[in-house]
Design brief:
Length: 221
């Protein structure tokens, strides 16, 4: 692959050593090149205006001045074609949901091995999404196809109004206990809705429920 054809990657992380190490790993992949680096979201907005639009951004969630959530939202508004992969130290359910809703197309932990980072970059570049083990393979497959998968439509038609209401609440930052209070139901009943949806939709995590809801238009990002 010629230099001009390399996929452009931008890095946004306030930890300099980690960012420099990440830049070295990205450049070592051969078909990717680091376009620019930024210390935080505010700096990122300046850098993108100076250096141009990257294909993919590896974005830390916790940054000073302007965090990953705000920066992803800003990108979605001003540069909607730029794909964001969120970086985090923690596999935090609420953080993942917030980043998805802010427009991130992938989520990877900072302690991941280089091959997983390469896989994430390749997947986002070619397919538009990467969710690693956070979502079942079946759901990733349906997201990637983004077509009229009859089994997905059938599953959606099998959901009743209360299950759909629960699914919408599950796409927020509310805890299951708060969802129970919102729906005027017991926590045990809410757990029942969750487990039923896991079984019906063949999904194993709350993040999977969020991605199913986005894919099927129940909520929008």
């Amino acid at each position: 692959m010629k230099q001009a054809e390399k996929i452009k990657v931008a890095l946004a992380d306030d930890h300099i050593l980690l960012r420099k190490g990440l830049a070295g790993v990205v450049d070592s992949f051969g078909d990717y090149a680091v376009l620019f680096e930024a210390d935080n979201g505010q700096h990122f907005t300046q850098q993108i205006k100076k250096h141009g639009e990257p294909d993919i951004v590896l974005m830390d969630i916790n940054m000073p001045e302007m965090d990953g959530y705000a920066t992803a939202q800003w990108l979605k508004q001003h540069y909607p074609l730029v794909n964001v992969i969120a970086l985090s130290m923690y596999d935090n359910e609420n953080a993942i949901i917030r980043m998805f809703k802010a427009g991130a197309k992938g989520y990877i932990l900072k302690d991941s091995e280089p091959p997983e980072l390469k896989k994430a970059l390749d997947s986002v570049h070619k397919k538009g999404y990467y969710y690693s083990e956070l979502v079942t393979g079946r759901l990733i497959h349906s997201i990637n196809k983004m077509d009229d998968d009859k089994s997905e439509i059938k599953a959606l038609n099998e959901l009743n109004d209360r299950e759909i209401e629960f699914l919408k609440h599950a796409c927020t930052e509310m805890t299951y206990k708060e969802i129970a209070e919102k729906m005027h139901l017991s926590p045990r009943t809410i757990d029942g809705y969750r487990d039923t949806l896991f079984e019906k939709l063949e999904i194993k995590t709350r993040v999977g429920l969020v991605m199913y809801a986005i894919k099927n238009g129940i909520v929008t990002i």
